[in-house]
Amino acid sequence: MESPQKKGSEFRVADFGAQPGGPTPCTVAIQRAIDAAAAAGGGIVTFAPGSYLTGALFVKSHVELRVDRGVELTGVQDEAAYPDIWSRVAGIEMSWPSALINVYEQQDVKITGEGVINGQGDFWWHKYWGPDERGGMLKDYDAKGLRWAVDYDCKRPRVILVYKSSEVVLQNLTLKRAPFWTVHVCFSKNITVDGIIIRENLGPSSDGIDIDSSSEVLVKNCDVDCNDDAICLKAGRDADGLRVNRPTENVVIRDCIVHAGHGLFTIGSETAGGVRNVEVFNLKARGTWIGFSFKSARTRGGVVENISIHDIDMVDVPRPFRFTLNWLPAYSYPQMPPGWQGELPVHWKVLTQPVIPPERGIPEFRNITFTNISVKKMNRPATAAEPSSSVLMHTPDPLASLAFDIEAYAEKPMSGLHWENVSIEAASAGQIRHARDWTLENVVVTTDDGAPVKLEDCQNIPQPKLLTSAGKTAIG
User: Fold this and answer.
1) 263 touches 292 (CB < 8 A)
2) Is residue 391 predicted with pLDDT exceeding 80?
3) What is the spatial distance between Cα 447 and Cα 474, in angstroms, rounded to a whole number?
4) Counting C-beta atoms within 10 Å of the first and last residue's C-beta, which end of the chain has fewer, N or C?
5) How far apart are CA 92 and CA 431, in angstroms?
């Protein structure tokens, strides 16, 4: 017998009391429609055109939440509307506000339509860094030597959370103004994110799509403009991530475009469970701050391997390849300030738990291929300043234009990278530290200064063919 969902059974939120346009949240009425569809064995929850103010919603198994063109779900700016649930946030398991839309321990769920889901993140952006981006909790915690804790203490809802779920499809929606991460897929399997548009993410940590210790994931046809990592793979941090030890694996990311953002495609900084068997292709970056961003820390741990990246087009990207495995130390290495007194929150104890033995925390990146990649001229000054400690600011300091900005660890050099048919235009060639056994085939770097890539503690790392912007051959 076919389930009601297969029959196309429709559950209209209006029939459960939800009306658009009013100042009163429709959370209870919309949830009633979702629960009724689930109780019937499945169905499609629909909305009449208009804007619906709502708090956290929980989509159940065999239910499709359809947000059609002309419909907007608008998140209420009330922290009480997002009750705490057990989740993972930025690499550790802890209690955290539920998302605006939650798929929590469910299966066979769809969230579709050409409508809009608006997180109304301004309230939480101001909570974190103040209306002027120079205050808020970030300023207070910085002054106390607690930069590492503020991202966890300043609780902010995500827009969509898929947690411990399977067979989930997110399709054709426009998501905007995320209070925190926009789409977070965590501890889940067989997930498709297709045709998602992300806009107006001007706040701190407003990642686009985060895939976290999940497997069999397809991300395609997405268009992302955000203020942090656009498409990112994660797998837990430090001692807690090593305890969970769950990888992100068997992931395909294709046919996407990224505009503003701290990374076209990012791995990390949470790498403890490992990331493996990933294919990334036919991506475009337009004015993105960083192209491929691999980041981790000495306490993160994990192995990142078997990553295939090909057919990539980047324009006006100052750091197309930035691999920083000692990323943002003030955030990455939690330590209690001297003389601190008082009870420690549970998640502070988790964050400050040491990795034993320490060498277990050193991450390793290996066996990664880059093929058919074009990086066109970056119209930024070669002497531009490095980013300040406020790395998540809405308007970051400009990065110097470098073809390569790569640093691993002497204990675990970045090894087995293969570069083929790669063309990069940059102000300078950049640097590589702690690397072993790379191959370069038809790799051409065109720079303003003509200087070679600076190599430190590198073995069997050839120089690319180097040209100057004037067309002269410098090396090769």
Assistant:
1) yes
2) no
3) 9
4) N
5) 32
pLDDT tens for 209-221 read 999 999 999 999 9
Q: Is the pLDDT of residue 117 over 50?
A: yes
Residue 135 corresponds to which amino acid? G
Mean pLDDT to the nearest integer, 355-379: 93
The percentage of residues in the chain with a pLDDT greater than 90, rounded to a whole number, is 89
Q: Are 158 and 100 contacting, i.e. CB atoms less than 8 angstroms apart?
A: yes
Q: What is the 8-class DSSP label of residue 149?
A: H
* Cβ atoms within 10 Å of 76's Cβ, excluding its own: 20
Rounded distance, CA 291 to CA 261, Å? 9
Rounded to an integer, what distance in angstroms lies between the CA atom of residue 414 and that of residue 407?
8
Q: Where are the beta strands (DSSP E) in 92-140?
A: 92-97, 101-104, 107-112, 116-118
93 forms beta bridges with 88
pLDDT digits (tens, 9 = 90+) for 167-177: 999 999 999 99
Global pTM value: 0.94
Rg (Cα) of the chain, in Å, rounded?
23
Please tell me the CATH code under which domain 111-475 is placed: 2.160.20.10
The pLDDT value given to residue 16:
97
DSSP symbols for 348-388: HHHHTPPPSSGGGG--EEEEEEEEEEEEE---S-TTPPPP-
Residues 80, 99: Cα–Cα separation, whole Å: 12
Q: pLDDT of 401-416, one tens digit each?
A: 999 999 999 999 999 9
Q: How many other CB atoms sit within 10 Å of the CB of residue 262?
A: 25
Predicted local distance difference test score (pLDDT) of residue 400: 84
The residue type found at 75 is: G
CA-wise closest residue to 302 among 257, 251, 247, 356:
247
